[in-house]
Amino acid sequence: MSTEPNEKQMTTKGLARFIGAALVAVALIAFVVQNTDSTPVQWFFIDRSAPLWLIIVISAVAGAVLSEIVGWILRRRR
Q: How confident is the model at residue 65 (pLDDT cuts 50, 70, 90)?
């Protein structure tokens, strides 16, 4: 019995990934459309105004990057 996936299984996985990516894209678009209000941002000596969705996305990306950096440092110390 062969353990290699057949073409139908590979196509099903590809379709599932496409549907998942499409759902995430729709959710992201809905999020951006609902959070267009401008909000004040104060960081150190910078005082600006920016759309709320942009602030949330930048914060999430910064958190993910910092998490990866800390994880890399901890793995390297072992």
A: very high
